[in-house]
């Protein structure tokens, strides 16, 4: 069995790591390159950087930052946010990103996944999916959960795999920010219907939540979280020992 992965996520705005709720009331929490280096030393398996800049100038700053990150860390990192064309993805991959994450643009125009696969290969494509439960169905959303689309989560997951995504990063908008745990049953079902890795996001409040989503309850291949790592609420080396003791395959440095 492949080792499960622990993935800190850093939201980047104008070159700084920020944290807020649904991208509002943002506060700087540190320098992203310095934080990335610290996560490398702590044994994070991968990193995700999300560009939440709203301006073209902000995008340029983010691209320069990707170059700095690539020069300073030795673990894979994925970048996302504002990627709507093959050219956007190419710019970030050339800057040194290992993978790109695409969300709203794929919902709007699914064939972009096909074009990205043809240009770069599936291993570079992470399909990020945000969804919430509405009247018993998990519906795909955009714009931080505020826009409900007509796409159903499980059908969309199957489609993004068919089109060429190499991984799925699913965030439950019902759980995101609650620190009450992941939507474990949803990850378990996703793992049963697609053959590509599933990254769990949304709801992590402690190490037990991560253990649940990576274990038999959730069957996710990786757990992504932000604030619990940024603010030292969960220590990655200690977490990994706990996961190993629970019988979950994990890489320990």
Quick overview:
With about 250 residues, the protein is an alpha/beta fold.
Structural commentary:
By secondary structure, this protein is α/β, with parallel strands linked by helices. It has a single domain, classed as TIM Barrel, CATH 3.20.20. Helix content is 38%, strand content 28%. It has helices spanning 32-42, 56-72, 86-95, 104-108, 111-120, 153-163, 184-193, 207-214, 227-230, 236-245, and strands at residues 5-13, 16-21, 24-30, 47-51, 77-80, 99-102, 125-134, 137-142, 147-152, 167-172, 198-201, 222-225. The radius of gyration is 17 Å and the shape is globular.
Stretches where pLDDT falls below 50 for ≥5 residues? none
CATH structural fold name? TIM Barrel
Number of strands: 12
User: How far is the first residue's CA from the last residue's CA?
Assistant: 18 Å
Overall structural domain count: 1
Rounded to the nearest angstrom, the radius of gyration is 17 Å
Apparent shape: globular
Mean pLDDT: 94
Helix content: 25-40%
This entry's quaternary arrangement is: single chain
Give me the strand/helix succession.
EEEHEHEHEHHEEEHEHEHEHH
Biggest sheet character: 8 strands, parallel, barrel
Strand order of the largest sheet: 1-4-5-6-7-10-11-12
CATH class value: Alpha Beta
Helical segment tally? 10
- CATH architecture type: Alpha-Beta Barrel
Beta-strand proportion: 25-35%
Which secondary-structure class do the elements indicate?
alpha/beta
CATH superfamily: Aldolase class I
């Amino acid at each position: 069995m492949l080792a499960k992965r622990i993935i800190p996520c850093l939201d980047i705005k104008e070159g700084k790591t920020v944290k807020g709720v649904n991208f509002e009331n943002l506060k700087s929490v540190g320098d992203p390159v310095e934080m990335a280096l610290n996560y490398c030393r702590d044994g994070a398996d991968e990193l995700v950087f999300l560009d939440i800049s709203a301006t073209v100038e902000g995008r340029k700053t983010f691209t320069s930052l990707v170059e700095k990150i690539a020069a300073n860390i030795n673990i894979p990192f994925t970048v996302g946010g504002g990627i709507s064309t093959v050219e956007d993805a190419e710019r970030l991959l050339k800057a040194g990103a290992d993978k790109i994450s695409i969300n709203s643009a794929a919902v709007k125009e699914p064939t972009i996944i096909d074009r990205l696969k043809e240009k770069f290969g599936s291993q570079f494509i992470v399909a990020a999916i945000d969804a919430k439960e509405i009247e018993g169905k998990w519906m795909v959303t955009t714009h931080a959960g505020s826009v409900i689309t007509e796409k159903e989560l499980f059908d969309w997951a199957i489609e993004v795999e068919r089109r060429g995504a190499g991984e799925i990063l699913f965030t439950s908008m019902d759980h995101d920010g609650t620190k009450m745990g992941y939507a474990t049953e949803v990850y378990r079902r996703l793992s049963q219907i697609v053959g590509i890795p599933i990254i769990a996001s949304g709801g992590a409040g402690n190490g037990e939540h991560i253990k649940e989503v990576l274990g038999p309850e959730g069957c996710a291949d990786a757990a992504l979280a932000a604030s619990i790592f940024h603010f030292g609420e969960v220590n990655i080396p200690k977490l990994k020992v706990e996961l190993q003791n629970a019988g979950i395959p994990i890489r320990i440095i």
